Amino acid sequence: MPQSLVSSPRRQVIIFALITAACVAGDSMLYVVLPVHWKSAGLASLWEVGLLLSLNRLARLPLNPLAGWAYSRISTKTGAVLAGLLAVFTTLSYGMAEGLAAWAVLRVLWGLSWSFLKLGGLLMVMDVAGEHERGYLVGLYSGIYRLGSLAGMLGGGLLADLFGLQATAFACAALAVLGVAAAILLLKRISPEGRSSASDAPDAPRPSVFTVLRSPALLWVLLACLMVKLLTEGFFMSTLSSLLEYHWGSSIRCFGLALGCATVAGFIQSLRWGWDPVLSPLVGRISDGRLGRVGMFAGGCWICAALLALTVFPLPFWPWMGLLIGFLVCCTVMTTLSDALATDVAADSQAVVVITAYTFATDLGAALGPLGGFAAIELWGMDAAYILCAAMMALLALQWTFWPPVKRKRA
User: Of 279, 284, 286, which Cα lies nearest the Cα of 129?
Assistant: First the structure.
């Protein structure tokens, strides 16, 4: 590994995270702007908005292996430049696109851009981090790039209300241009050949992709991370508004104001983007230490299970809201630990193959969460759905407490 990268791993990860933040702002902006300004986009109905906002996630399922194949042949710097150019094109086109077909193409292209960014960010951590700083750098990357989501949602909503969708899209595209410039000028280049695992002997034959993917440790880690993504960012995030309405009615009295459930849910979720830049690196740093990621992951599963189960009880409003905010904190913790566990497994195997499989699994979980969640609510009711999710989390907790699929690495 080049000495210049070893001496400045934190700087390289921060640069890649800022590039990701600059590119993701345009996508995040759509989640608050498009449901209001959909007529300006040439769309015919709100169901088209819902389809477009989920299409990029569905598209990433087949696109993640494509990005992984590319990263086995190109450097993370080249991948970041390609992702940035795609982000500039798609975000700029948001201001000019008309009709569902054009928007669908743009959302698929953004899905490809995000696949390059997510895989590239984790591979950058793999390229520059030592074993006992990997969790911190994963958390640092995750926390910083979510600042782009915060800027896109807050700034994008304000700009759209003042100047319209087109001007907002152009402003976000200009931000993505800065990301491309940073990728070209500031990122260091590491060839794919230099991305070998520390456990590989110099002349040892590389295992096949099929052999890597058959590893029991990898399969159990992928299943755990898929379930965490499905239950947290898939199920919980998508059903939060419905959960609030189920327990408190269509409007909630708060500080003397009657607020809609969607407004309250949006405010609660926006809290996460504020604390992620601080909490994610902290969680990663702690997991690098004596406690270890495996123990923290098991403990996080137990806490998630308890918080999900407690939502069904008729508690006073503020303690009940505290449960939701506590679960959101756990979402940050579990996402950071999942990313760090994936890089741990990748360090002992073929990094590109493992990280590609991990991103595929987490995207699948994020896509299945809303579908499975609302199906469970329709079949068994809100309380039963949340109890079922709590039970699934408890099963994960039992496995990682007593039969962890990976070794407990400690500093």
Answer: 284
Can you give the pTM of this predicted structure?
0.82
- Sign of the Cα torsion 241, 242, 248, 251 reads positive
The Cα angle at residue 383 between residues 381 and 387, in degrees rounded to 5: 115
Q: Which residues contact 173 (CB under 8 A, 6 or more apart)?
A: 26, 88, 91, 92, 94, 95
Q: What angle do CA 357, 358, 360 make, to 5 degrees?
A: 65
Element holding 259 (H helix, E strand): strand 257-260
Residue 12 has pLDDT above 60, yes or no: yes
Instruction: Pinpoint the residues of the chain covered by CATH 1.20.1250.20.
Output: 3-191, 210-402
pLDDT single digits (tens) 139-183? 999 899 988 988 887 788 778 878 888 999 999 999 999 999 999
**Which residues touch 389 (CB under 8 Å, ≥6 apart)?**
231, 235, 236, 308, 373
pLDDT digits (tens, 9 = 90+) for 58-67: 888 899 999 9
Query: Which CATH code is given to the segment(s) 210-402?
Result: 1.20.1250.20
- Alpha-helix residue ranges (DSSP H) falling in 34-75: 46-71
HSE (side-chain half, CA atoms, 13 Å) at 99:
2
CATH class of 3-191: mainly alpha
